[in-house]
Amino acid sequence: MSNIAILCSGGDVSGMNPALKHFVEYSLQKGLRPFFIYDGLEGLIDNNIQEVSYSDVSGIITRGGTKIGSSRSKRFMHKEYRKIAKKNLDALGIDMLVVMGGDGSFRGMEIFYKEHGVKFCGIPSTIDNDINGTDYCLGVDTALNIIKTSIDAIRDTASSFKRAFVIETMGRDCGYLALISHLTSGSELCLIPEVPYDLKDYEEDFKNQIKNGRRYFIAIVSEGIQEDSQEIATWFEEKIGMESRVSVLGHIQRGGNPSIYDRLMAYKFVNYAIDGLLHQKNESVICYTKNGFEFKSIKEVTSKTKELDTQLLTCLECS
After folding, report:
1. d(Cα 13, Cα 16) in Å, to the nearest integer?
2. 48-52 — which CB contacts under 8 Å span 24+ positions?
3. pLDDT for 63-111, tens place per residue?
4. Active-site residues: which are they?
5. Could you tell me if residue 104 is left (phi over 0), alpha (psi between -120 and 50 degrees) or otherwise beta?
6. Helix residue ranges per DSSP H, the chain
7. In angstroms, rounded to a whole number, what is the distance separating the alpha carbons of residues 255 and 100?
8. Alpha-carbon dihedral of residues 174, 148, 257, 289, nearest 10 degrees?
């Protein structure tokens, strides 16, 4: 019987717990002994590794975050700690890893494979949806639904008080969350890092909208734009003439009850990851594209910055 382990690395996302549940169930179905590595790569170094079964994942499918914890490990960047990690895996007979994380985690695992031969498959897991080579990352749908609920609630207050609200989403240097939220919420302004902008271009139009009866504005901005959200709010007050407020959604976007779609994608990602490892996909990332699920090399995934879909960007120009 072969042994297989799973870990979470980097930021948590809703969808990780459903993935952990199915990892245990599918591993046992395939005749494998499943192990959890707690607290990410730090736990791999500290030997915080335990064999698990059905009772360890009972009831976790509804929970956000990750039952087994996560971390960002600086120690794993150093060869001596990777040697310790390999020794810990060898002691338990583990030679296959499933890694939920981002491109930084996958780069680290690629080095680990080349040094020590530990096979792995990465599952893209970040609400930023900024991993090249995959159209979808685990956790994105839940995050978008949380943003949707927040925007809808803020709109009630905006319309009641004739205010402009600047709503800031996560995403680092990727505007995916802001863009999709804008297109699906009917907001009046969307600013993302991928598209240059000049606020002056909006002034005449927004003033005319107020003259024609507009009572409020919703502006959705990504955290990676050139100005901070408060500067956008100040612009609304000084140039458009409307009282404004800022709502930084922050880490509420990363948690919450996993959506149906994220639960389903967790199920599929895990199936492909385990099957891939059993069929000699020894150092890969399972990606989801317009062609379905595809195994891609670490080089392909990490070689360049993720670009937003041109059709979505065209929709932004027309909105």
Report:
1. 6
2. 49/5, 49/88, 49/89, 49/92, 49/94, 51/92, 52/24
3. 999 999 999 999 999 999 999 999 999 999 999 999 999 988 999 999 9
4. 128
5. alpha
6. 16-29, 40-45, 79-92, 103-116, 140-161, 176-185, 200-211, 229-235, 260-278, 298-302, 310-318
7. 16
8. -50
Query: CB–CB of 97/4 below 8 Å?
Result: yes
User: How far, in Å, CA of 96 to CA of 108, rounded?
Assistant: 15
AA letter at 238? E
Q: What is the pLDDT of residues 34-70, one digit of tens each?
A: 999 999 999 999 999 999 999 999 999 999 999 999 9
3-state secondary structure of 312: helix
**Cα-based torsion angle of the residue sequence 91, 92, 96, 99 in order, rounded to the nearest 10 degrees:** -100
Would the pLDDT of 319 be above 90? no
Q: Which residues, 6+ apart, have CB-to-CB distance to 7 below 8 Å?
A: 36, 37, 40, 41, 43, 44, 68, 97, 98, 99, 100
Q: What is the pLDDT of residue 101?
A: 96
- Supply the mean pLDDT for the chain: 95
Which helix or strand (DSSP H or E) is residue 98 part of? Answer: strand 94-101
**pTM (2 decimals)?**
0.95
Inform me whether the pLDDT recorded for 22 exceeds 90. yes
The amino acid sitting at 166 is V
Question: Of 287, 291, 306, 285, which Cα lies nearest the Cα of 97?
Answer: 285
DSSP assignment, residue 147? Answer: H
Which amino acid does the sequence have at 49?
Answer: I
Residue found by looking up tokens 């612009």 in the block? 235
